Structures are given as C-alpha cells and as structure tokens.
Amino acid sequence: MKNVLLDAGIHNIDYCPAKVIYKPTNEQLEYSVANIPGIYDRLDRNASILTPGPRGMVFGIMSMKFNVELMQDLRLFRLKENQTSLLLMDRCGMRCWITDSQA
After folding, report:
1. Which residues is 51 bridged to in the sheet?
2. Share of the chain above pLDDT 70, in %
3. Which residues are bridge partners to 48 per DSSP?
4. For all residues of the chain together, what is the average pLDDT?
C-alpha cells in the first residue's frame, strides 16, 4: 500500500517500520504503519450543509464543499471538522472519497 500511495503522488504520510508476528506459525512479516499527520481546515462552512455543535464543532455533515484553493498539494488528509475520516481527492481536486479511519 505504501508504494501505491507514493506512486499516486501522496507524500504527506509518515511511515514507521513494524514487524507483525503471525501467532499460529510464528512467521514475522515486515510492514509499515502509516500516519497522516496534521488536521486541515479546508471545509467551506458557508457552502456546506452542516449540523453545528458547540464551540465551532460539527456534529453532522450532509454536504461538503471545499476551499479548493487551499488544497493544492493535499490529496489524502484528515478534515478538522471530522477528524476520524480520511479524505482522498482525485488529481483534479474535483471528487472526494471519504472513509472512516476508525473502521
């Protein structure tokens, strides 16, 4: 997966080596743990449909619109308003895929 992300031009990820041991056979496998550092404030709150919470937090997002000018080099990131989700922008910055990083 690390090579796939790097080949796709996604470079804002920290990788740490990890050794995974498969208990039934005691086989040791080399992996990398990925961390996406930073949380970005790129949501256009005026154009998005949000359920607001206290102290500027967001309880729900029904429709997201982004400030594309601020996302020039971001392809994979966590959004300030929804920190448990990962957002992946296509190369044109026109489409977004969202996944729950806690799943």
Report:
1. 60
2. 87
3. none
4. 81
Distances (CA, A) of 63 to 10, 27, 96: 25, 46, 12
**Placement of tokens 């990083």 in the chain:** 101
Give the 3-state secondary structure of residue 53. Answer: coil
Please report the pLDDT score of residue 34 as a whole number: 87
Q: Which amino acid is at 22?
A: Y
Range 10-47 burial, b when 16+ CB lie within 10 A, else e: beeeeeeeeeeeeeeeeeeeeeeeeeeeeebebbeeee
For residue 63, pLDDT beyond 90: no
Q: Output the pLDDT for position 62.
A: 83
User: Can you tell me whether residue 13 is helix, strand or coil?
Assistant: coil
In this model, does residue 33 exceed pLDDT 70? Answer: yes
Cβ atoms 80, 39 nearer than 8 A: yes
- DSSP annotation of 75 reads S
